[in-house]
Amino acid sequence: MSTVALSRPSLPSRPTSTGTVAVVGLGYVGLPTALALLGAGRTVIGLDVSPARLEAIRRQDVDLLPSDLDRLAAAVDDPRFALTDDPALLADASVVIVCVPTPVDAHLVPDLDALAAACATAVAHAVPGQLLMLTSTTYVGCTRDLVLRPLLARGLTPGEDVHVAFSPERIDPGNAHHAQDRTPRVVGGATPRCTELAAEALLLTAPSVHRVSSPEAAEMSKLYENTFRAVNIALANEFADNCRGLGLDPLEVIEAAATKPYGFMPFYPGPGVGGHCIPCDPHYLLWQLRGLRIASPLIDTAMTAIAGRPRQVVQRVRELLGDRGRPLTGARVLLVGVSYKPGVADLRESPALEILEELGELGASAAFHDPLVPSARLHGAVLHSVADPAAEEWDLIVVHTVQPGSDLAWLAGREPVLDATYRLSGVPAKAVL
């Protein structure tokens, strides 16, 4: 094990109520969380199993909001901030926060490996007086299965010897409007005392905390949040298809409906859904419900529709090329923007990857341009961003993600252009999904 000490802090020998906070997992949730806690005056241990990730953080070569990049620049010289892959240092913390990915596999089955390993590490190094708090989205009962029961097996009674809670993360990558210090948190502890201690820790970086009766209620609240979004995005996509069939502009219709001040919340169509939240989290619920023989047909249908959206993009590409007498095989197709959302360099679950792969499998010559993403790995091959797409000829251009500050005026004279964002203006020959 190695510790990259950004000036190694003096860590307390045992946890105290005002002491060190350890953050396990330094990804898109864990690193901003660690920086926010450091800004709140705490000594912070950042633990990650990847030496490469630790080194990237030390170099400040990470995808963060500008405000968090400024925080990181200051943190590298702060004696209260330590980066490490040594789990033994968890015993020095008064609070341990687990923030690791909870993806699904190729069969849309939850992949709990990272979370199970992180929880096992936290439990193995837990000491009396400590608070262990999970934030990773997962199934209902995970905190009990992976933390509470193993602690009891170690002879540590939750609520007495140690404290345990679940508080779902609420990080919106690339969105400065939803900063942690303006976003309420939900928390449920194993006991009322656990809940209160967790709330006290959360209030270091959140404006308010909503307490629920149990870790399970907090776990379910997160699943409901993202399932709500998934179902409504699936509906927006379907409604956009309906509008095209009726010769209507879906955005015009959505914006008109959104003028109603009650009973409606606008969701917008697109080429699919990416990231590790909406396309993944509802499958944790569906997986658990299937095991209990509980049907959830609305959610199931919505997630099937979301999974199939990138294939709809490919089919629309085929249709538009066919309308011009051009077969898909051999066609030069460019995707503009490949990250899963604007303002980030994040390719996790991005629909663009599936679109590029399927286009390639069908014989098209597929390429991409994204100012934030220099390269993307597809089936083991590496595809590099086209530096100057305006200088090349394309049989069809698909606008997938419009990065902030991008000048797409060069698209005005191109045709056909498939606008999968539904928001492109100034392109007379554009089509939509």
Name some characteristics of this structure.
433 residues; alpha/beta; Rossmann fold; 16 strands; 35% helix; 15% strand
In short:
The chain is α/β, with parallel strands linked by helices.
What features would you describe in this structure?
With 433 residues, this protein is an alpha/beta fold. The chain folds into 2 domains: 3-213, NAD(P)-binding Rossmann-like Domain (Rossmann fold, 3-Layer(aba) Sandwich), CATH 3.40.50.720; 310-432, NAD(P)-binding Rossmann-like Domain (Rossmann fold), CATH 3.40.50.720. It has 11 helices and 16 strands. The protein has helices at 30-39, 51-59, 66-75, 113-124, 142-153, 192-202, 215-245, 250-257, 281-291, 297-323, 351-361, and strands at 3-5, 21-24, 44-47, 81-84, 95-98, 131-134, 163-166, 185-189, 209-212, 332-336, 365-369, 375-378, 381-384, 396-399, 417-419, 430-432. The chain has a 9-stranded mixed sheet with strand order 1-4-3-2-5-6-7-8-9, with helices on both faces. The chain has a 5-stranded parallel sheet with strand order 11-10-14-15-16, covered by helices on one side. A hairpin with a 2-residue loop joins strand 12 (375-378) and strand 13 (381-384). Helix 1 packs across helix 3, helix 4 runs parallel beside helix 5 and helix 7 (215-245) crosses helix 9. The termini are far apart. The model is unreliable at 4-18 (pLDDT under 50).
